[in-house]
Specification:
Organism: Ruminococcus difficilis
Helix content: 40-55%
Mean pLDDT: 92
InterPro entries: CopG_antitoxin
Shape: elongated
Protein name: BrnA antitoxin family protein
Radius of gyration: 20 Å
Number of helices: 2
């Protein structure tokens, strides 16, 4: 192993902005169960399915519509 390395000609990772971030989030058990069921049917991990769904919402700029009934 070298004592020093020359990174002066290094290139930034072009995918760095697309890297996923780990977070903690509270999700209802029924929602998790739904995505786990979908995961079993599709063979895609449920966390990936949740990410794909949320990414689709971002891409389509979906707005949440809440109707509160009193």
């Amino acid at each position: 192993m070298r004592e020093e390395y020359d990174f002066s000609k290094g290139v930034k990772n072009p995918y760095a902005k697309k890297l996923k971030k780990q977070i903690s989030i509270n999700i209802d058990g029924s929602v998790i169960d739904y995505f786990k069921q979908q995961a079993n049917e599709t063979g895609i991990p449920y966390q990936t399915l949740i990410n794909l769904y949320l990414a689709d919402c971002v891409e389509k700029k979906k707005k949440l519509k809440l109707d509160w009934v009193s």
